From TrEMBL:
Residues 1-24 form the signal peptide. Its main location: other. This is palmitoyl-CoA hydrolase. It comes from Oryzias melastigma (Marine medaka). Belongs to the palmitoyl-protein thioesterase family.
Length: 289
């Protein structure tokens, strides 16, 4: 027996050393935006690994490119499954960073997964209160005109992802009645799972909202901070929104707890958010500890 004790002891020692050398940074999960995929996060993954060596970063490879226009609920089910698998291998918890449309997908995932261990959730330029605008590069070719989009979005195109968060401030009644995604997620319309979703969502430690005035896609850009248009297209900021004041999904709770962080950066276009080092250093890095 004695002959075995040395190798066993050294194996235990090596294991202890290995554990000691392992990074203490939690794994990071990245969720991409519309008409995009995990490859869009190459630069960001580099930033994270350089700042926090040893971090395990997973850009989820699901609903890429054209598949990212499928209905939000369908995508949420898919992303929830993969997120769950990663979390089960990471009992210490993970961080979730979600870009653009991905921010709404992640909110759905966090609302629906009862035992998730997401610590910090970062929504990077996401249309959290909805979208009412067409990017400049589409405007000239856009045959409908923005005012009639709601007819399509709340009707025939209701399974098109962008329509799931199309929020026409001039047709709020139709939005509440026919949009089966955002009004439920934001608790603007009551539903039977509201309390459960809120409880699940509030398992996160911090909510970090990142956006800025030079974003040329998210409209209004304040939607990245839960602000939105009223029916005169004036901006109503987050704290004056009913979904903040009535607290149906926990936004006000997080704020009161001191766990809501808002980061504003000017000079950044929509497609640049995940590749800009100043944004990473100012708004992201410290929340990925
Ligand atoms: C989209 O989904 C289909 C079916 O699930 C799959 O065959 C296809 O490869 C996907 N496309 C992309 C770009 O991932
Ligand atoms: C990052 O954004 C800032 C504005 O906040 C800008 O001045 C800078 O040039 C950008 N950097 C890159 C590499 O695009």
């Amino acid at each position: 027996m004695k002959t075995f004790s040395f190798p066993v002891t050294s194996a235990v020692l090596m294991l202890l050393l290995a554990v000691g050398c392992t990074s203490t940074y939690k794994p990071v999960i990245l969720v991409h935006g519309v008409l995009s995929g995990p490859s869009s996060f190459k630069t960001l993954t580099g930033f994270i690994k350089k700042a926090h060596p040893g971090t395990e970063v997973t850009a989820i490879d699901l609903f890429n490119n054209e598949n990212s226009t499928k209905s939000m609920w369908e995508q949420i089910d898919g992303f929830a499954k993969v997120t769950q698998e990663i979390m089960e291998k990471s009992p210490e918890g993970v961080h979730l960073l979600c870009y653009s449309q991905g921010g709404l997908i992640c909110r759905g995932v966090l609302s629906k997964l009862p035992n998730h261990n997401v610590q910090n959730f970062i929504a990077l330029s996401s249309p959290l209160a909805g979208q009412y605008g067409v990017p400049d590069y589409l405007r000239n070719t856009f045959f409908l005109g923005i005012k009639s989009v709601y007819v399509w979005c709340y009707g025939l195109l209701k399974y098109f992802s962008v329509c799931n968060y199309w929020n026409d401030p001039h047709h709020h009644k139709e939005y509440l009645e026919y949009n089966k995604f955002l009004p439920l997620l934001n608790g603007e319309k009551t539903h039977s799972e509201m309390a459960e979703w809120k409880k699940n969502f509030l398992r996160i430690k911090k909510l970090v909202l990142i956006g800025g005035p030079d974003d040329d896609v998210i409209t209004p850009w304040q939607s990245s901070h839960f602000g939105f248009y009223n029916n005169k297209e004036s901006i109503i900021e987050m704290k004056k929104q009913n979904f903040y004041k009535k607290n149906p999904f926990g936004l006000k709770t997080l704020d009161t707890r001191g766990d809501l962080i808002v980061c504003t950066q000017s000079g950044v276009k929509h497609v640049e958010w995940h590749s800009n080092l100043s944004v990473f250093e100012k708004c992201i890095q410290k929340w990925l500890d």
